[in-house]
Design a protein that fits this description.
single chain, alpha+beta
Length: about 240
């Protein structure tokens, strides 16, 4: 089967296998396997139990389960129906036994305001709550805070690089290892670096398709010979590369 003949299910299954290799290569072979599940016009890629519910990924510190990862990607075709695209992503970090996450990395393919790629921090600062209350009427006109509802820092959408430069699961695993010294298996960094490099190259290629004229100009500057044909579409000013 060629790449052009691969179905959306095939591509989503390949993506699921990559995520399994990543998490098991970093956290260990007991990490649950990712699967692809057709949910209508999208494919869910997540660690799934036999009843198709999402399973959280255990994360240990000093051999004790202290954290859990909730990971879900909803996938679809890109605009050209050629490449696998992510319609929605959720990566949540939970403290063991808690129902409220510590962090939420999220992506919404069709969002601009709030930004499509964003981070939620579940914490509290009196100063931040005060600023949110001041901005109640003007700061969030589209979906302002409900009356008599205390503002929370967790409601803020922190931008994290836009649609093309957003962080991936690899970045979250790096954060957990660096800041919390989670348990990792031998050779984990090599595994993670390979996956992170693949992710960054994939996003770079998508960015080049968004800004191919700028990419061609840069290639010429460093010595490449780049030509175009009449079939090349003009560079779009509203591509995802420029969206928040």
């Amino acid at each position: 089967m060629t790449a052009d003949e691969a179905t959306l299910d095939d591509k989503a299954t390949q993506f699921a296998d990559k995520l399994t290799a990543l998490t098991r290569g970093v956290l260990g072979e007991d990490s649950p396997q990712f699967s692809a599940q057709n949910v209508g016009n999208r494919i869910r890629v997540a660690p799934l139990a036999s009843d198709r519910r999402i399973v959280r990924i255990p994360v240990r510190i000093n051999e004790e389960r202290c954290l859990n990862l909730f990971v879900q990607h909803l996938c679809c075709w890109d605009g050209a129906a050629k490449y696998l695209a992510v319609d929605r992503t959720e990566v949540k970090v939970f403290y063991e036994g808690s129902s409220d996450p510590l962090l939420r990395y999220e992506y919404e393919r069709y969002w601009d305001d709030p930004p499509g790629a964003h981070l939620h921090v579940h914490a509290h600062r009196d100063e931040m709550a005060y600023l949110l209350r001041l901005a109640d009427k003007k700061g969030r006109p589209r979906n302002g805070m409900r009356a008599r509802k205390l503002p929370r820092l967790a409601e803020m959408h922190f931008s994290v690089g836009g649609h093309r430069m957003r962080p991936a699961l690899e970045d979250v695993l790096l954060l957990l290892e660096r800041e919390f010294a989670i348990d990792v298996v031998k050779g984990w960094r090599e595994v993670l670096d390979v996956h992170l490099r693949e992710w960054r190259i994939l996003q770079l290629k998508a960015a080049v398709r968004d800004a191919h004229e700028a990419a061609a100009e840069t290639l010429r500057e460093i010595g490449y010979v780049v030509t175009s044909t009449d079939q090349v579409e003009s560079q779009r000013e509203n591509s995802r590369l420029y969206r928040p």
